[in-house]
Design goal:
With 196 residues, the protein is of the alpha/beta class. Strands 2-5-1-6-7 form a five-stranded parallel beta sheet, sandwiched between helices. Strands 3-4 form a two-stranded antiparallel ribbon. The chain is globular, with a radius of gyration of 17 Å.
Length: 196
């Protein structure tokens, strides 16, 4: 069974992913694979340059600042970049899932709902946390301003909208017992996979 693991910036989905890995479940990290593809896939690089110009790469290395400046100010550019990268990442996940013998295979990705990629999975696990907690976590982690975090959050759906579409939800506030929730959710997933 393939499970999309998602959550807004600062929700702690990567922490949940690490716990799932420690329990023996394979986790595919979409953002990491996307970055690897942009660094190594020559055809993808050529497609990016064709749309965004030669400045997209500096001596063969992705010019993140230049590209970020383009996609965060122009939704059409962002959509175009997603259309170049996401099908390749999905193909890699399919290979990853097919090579696994695990009953549960997780795909950790930030914007599963926003891109409608959530529809491709057998189920979705959403990690949530209070907005203020998320802002503080990201400011500390990325050494950035509150305004930067809020701007990044604007590109993602609000939790209540995601909760309506998720199969399982883990609350990851500072006082939530996350490990207990993960164990309970995994048990529910295993029961779900044998009954469906």
């Amino acid at each position: 069974m393939t499970i999309g693991l998602t959550g807004g910036i600062g929700s702690g989905k990567s922490t949940v992913a690490k716990v799932l890995e420690s329990m023996g479940y394979p986790v595919f990290y979409s953002d990491k694979v996307g970055k690897e593809l942009m660094a190594n896939d020559r055809q993808l690089q050529a497609d990016i340059v064709a749309h965004f110009g030669e400045q997209a790469f500096d001596k063969g290395v992705l010019n993140r600042a230049y590209l970020a400046g383009k996609i965060f100010t122009n939704p059409k550019d962002k959509e175009h970049l997603n259309q170049l990268i996401h099908p390749r990442v999905r193909a890699k996940f399919t290979e990853f899932a097919n090579a696994s013998t695990s009953k549960l295979v997780f795909n950790e990705a930030a914007i599963l709902f926003e891109t409608e990629a959530y529809k491709a999975f057998d189920g979705i696990l959403l990690v949530t946390a209070p907005e203020e907690t998320r802002i503080e976590r990201v400011m500390k982690r990325d050494q950035c301003s509150r305004e930067d975090v809020i701007n990044r959050m604007k590109n993602q759906w609000k939790d209540d909208r995601k909760i309506a579409l998720a199969n399982w939800v883990i609350q990851n506030g500072d006082t939530d017992k996350v490990l207990t929730q993960i164990e309970s959710v995994v048990e529910s997933m295993l029961n779900y996979s044998t009954s469906s």
